[in-house]
Automatic annotation (TrEMBL):
It comes from marine sediment metagenome. Residues 183-210 are annotated as: Disordered. Pfam families: HNH_3 (PF13392). Residues 77-121 form the HNH nuclease domain. This is HNH nuclease domain-containing protein.
Amino acid sequence: MSDAQFREIPGAPGYLLNAQGAVLSAYAARDVVVLSEGEIIDRPDVTLAKPMKPTLRPDGYYTVPLPGANGKWQYLLLHRLICEAFHGPAPKAGMYACHRDGDRSNNHPSNLYWGTPQDNMADAVRHGRVLNGEAHPFSTLTDEQAEEIRRLYATGEYYQRELAEKFGVKQGNISRIVRARRRRGNGGPITKVGSGPRRLGSVERAVSSP
């Protein structure tokens, strides 16, 4: 089938789309066809259909208004409609229509596939849509500071709370950095090389105190 050829949108009789992302409203323009067996069917007449202009959302996705089952109009994601029209319905509930190249404006069927939430997140990371480290708008530490935290903690000379005070952040931030729950580009979880003199001194003081 040519990319320019239209097919009916699943669940929206009288509305058509093609692989190029063009959408037509042919709800009021239908042919009545009598088959040789005597069966009568009606189908959209593309020549009389009216083009519909998809709306570009701020997040880069296109939507198109279609009537819902209750008769109310709703804006549906164009790439999801195309994925369903050309690849069939989502195999499981909760699946995403994912873009292989990360370009939300490239809604050709060859660029779309049904993926799990994990697939969708992996795509976001691969295409640079998830900000990590100091690139994150709410980051309070640079990548160099995070690496220094990991280096100091690995010596066994510092408690997490001491590093939190030193760098002006909460202990939870330090914990996530040294356990590689954040700044994963800086390496894996930290394994301490030893207790260190400061840690031993703290233990000795705790034992000898009244």
